[in-house]
Amino acid sequence: MTRLKYEKTYELTFEDLRFISSSSTGDRIVAMLSYESCTTSVAAEDSTIWLLSFKLGEQTPSAQYMAKSESSDIEVGKMYFRYADHFSGRISSMCKLSLVVKAIEEKLTKRQLSMFKKDIFGHFLECRSFPFSGVILHNLLLRQVAHEEDSREDQLWFQIGEHLIRLSIVEWCLVTGLSFGVDTKQKNDEMEQRLRNTYFGGVHRKISVNEFDAVFKKLKFEEMDNMEALKIALFYFTDRVLNARKNHCQINFDWLDQVDDIEYFRKRPWGLLSWEIIYESLDNALFQKDEKLKRTRLKNPDHNIEKYNLYGFTSGVQAWIYEAIGGLPSTWVVKTKKKIPRILQWKPMVYLIINFAEVYSFFNDESRLEDILQTLEPNSTESSRKYWLSVKDYMPSIPDWVHKVFLNQLWNNGDCAVDSLVFDDRLNSYLCGRQHTMSKSMTDVDMLLIPVNLDGAHWVLARVDFRKNKILDGRSECYKIVQEITISILLEVSGCTLIRCS
């Protein structure tokens, strides 16, 4: 793609656009990129217009990055850490998914295990071998992109090569198969604490996470009522996997009391609860770690690896990485049969054979990165599943700044700043069919207008005609730019066929 450099602001006049609607007034047109100065004129033509407006400023310098510890005012959309400030790290994950699955399978009777398999966490029993890969997660966290601090949607963004990828409740739902919704209080406010009194030494006994592991393995499940065994196993999984933390921490006694009301426990939005835990852990994982590394190196020049912990369901994050970043080597992870939820599709390799330099190089090499999925979408089978239906009403929209970053990369190759966007973040939702702008679906749009600057000297306006399934302009150089920059996205939406115009 030609690298365009702009030394002044170019303007599109109404005359540049007039030919678009001259053949038929009332055409339904989407102007993907346009100037604010054109908005009034275009809308004056008797057409249905949706404008995503921006204006070009003077050439901007290369993207600036700032370490997360240096300033809380870092620009949204920029990576917290400059590439030059990236460092090796060693993560300890508190999540022991495979160990917990093994303990449950070994301790429960055949009947009790069958009951667990049919319950809310039963599908995770297939994750018997799911080793943690701290090297891959550390490389991901180094590439975290700054987001709005007051975001109510709690979505995390990362930059892999030139691509932005999102981890939000949508991705979390599809990967884990855990449900969302509004959490409610238990009807009985006075917990009976029966399970504590019966099996765990009473309400005054303190039990750490590590101690509960030992207690669980000593329980005689074969002498226990099957429903009692199920309740204890469900709590064990929830507290040790979804709420994973350091061994010396106390178990969540509230959850232990709540599981005795098993119907209430099952209805809790464990997707939301586990998401809140992992979000907090990931978002703060590298805070000031670079500064700590620098201080330690002053005392010990040989120190080159920063160690830190991750809490919550880190296995779910791994599975999302495997889904979002295509082409990962088979020495890191292998995709098995197509299953849902998606965590069941992956078999990670032992992390000891993966080194930092190998992953770091892969994440920066565009030639090795295959299908990068900015967001995950449900397939036909997933769309009807209870866990997906539970999250549909809570789906976050793509933030406005993501489109600005995307347009900077896509349209100007990073040389010009996108100053403003009209209609905020609806472009992606609209094109994906999740949200209709002005109550019109994409199938109701006849044309998409795409202004293209040729060699920094001349503006032309290409159009994609959805009625004729053609790209129309008549200039081969314009066609080439449109093809390279935007059509891969448009074809996904419209099913158009590329037809070169003479």
From TrEMBL:
<dbReference type="Pfam" id="PF09331">
    <property type="entry name" value="DUF1985"/>
</dbReference>
<feature type="domain" description="DUF1985">
    <location>
        <begin position="141"/>
        <end position="279"/>
    </location>
</feature>
<dbReference type="InterPro" id="IPR003653">
    <property type="entry name" value="Peptidase_C48_C"/>
</dbReference>
<dbReference type="GO" id="GO:0008234">
    <property type="term" value="F:cysteine-type peptidase activity"/>
</dbReference>
<keyword id="KW-0645">Protease</keyword>
<protein>
    <recommendedName>
        <fullName>Ubiquitin-like protease family profile domain-containing protein</fullName>
    </recommendedName>
</protein>
<dbReference type="InterPro" id="IPR015410">
    <property type="entry name" value="DUF1985"/>
</dbReference>
<comment type="similarity">
    <text>Belongs to the peptidase C48 family.</text>
</comment>
<dbReference type="Pfam" id="PF02902">
    <property type="entry name" value="Peptidase_C48"/>
</dbReference>
<dbReference type="InterPro" id="IPR038765">
    <property type="entry name" value="Papain-like_cys_pep_sf"/>
</dbReference>
<feature type="domain" description="Ubiquitin-like protease family profile">
    <location>
        <begin position="436"/>
        <end position="472"/>
    </location>
</feature>
<keyword id="KW-0378">Hydrolase</keyword>
<dbReference type="GO" id="GO:0006508">
    <property type="term" value="P:proteolysis"/>
</dbReference>
